[in-house]
Amino acid sequence: MAQISLYIDDSMAARLNTAAKERKCSVSKYVVSLITDSLSDSEEHSKKQRLQQLRGALDDPSFEIPNEISWDDEITRRFDLL
Q1: CA–CA distance from 49 to each of 58, 59, 62 (Å)?
Q2: Residue 74: DSSP 8-state
Q3: What is residue 57's DSSP assignment?
C-alpha cells in the first residue's frame, strides 16, 4: 500500500483530527474517503461533460430519433448491476 505525506498547518491538522474522531475513523481513512468522494464527483462530472459535447455529433441526415419504446416491449432490466 502506498504512503503519502501531507504537509498542513497545525490548525488544519486539528480540524482533520476532530472530523475523523466524529466519524469514528482514523485520519488516514478519513482523508481517503474525502479523496475518493472528490475523485468520484470529478469523474462523473467529466463523463457528463463528454456526453454533452457528443450530443449532436452524428451528422447523418438519414438518422431519425426512434419513438420511445414502451416498458412492456423492452427486455427485463437489471438495475442491480449498476
Answers
A1: 17, 20, 27
A2: S
A3: -
Q: How confident is the model over 44-55, as pLDDT tens digits? A: 888 888 877 877
CA distance 19 to 32: 13
In a domain, 70, yes or no: no
| N-terminal to C-terminal alpha carbon distance within the chain | 28
Q: How many domains does the chain have?
A: 1
Tens digit of each residue's pLDDT (9 = 90 or more) over 6-25: 899 999 999 999 999 999 99
Domain that holds residue 28: 9-41
CA–CA separation, 64 vs 4, rounded Å? Answer: 52
